[in-house]
Design a protein that fits this description.
71 residues, mainly beta
Amino acid sequence: SFPTRRSSDLFGAEDKPELLWVRCLSVDENILTGELLNEPTKNFGCHAGDLIKFGVAQIGEQNILLHLPTK
């Protein structure tokens, strides 16, 4: 089981991360798939309503969710 909504960090090649909200829909191994709930202010190539894949990264003692581009 996983939370319905989580925040996920999206990173651009030269940008600082942007915190966005994602509705988790499925989990396959260590990769989660969810619907992006809000529109990014930067151009990450995805938009509100898109399905995105993301994974969990541990930084120190904190787990963060990171977008995994598919293109």
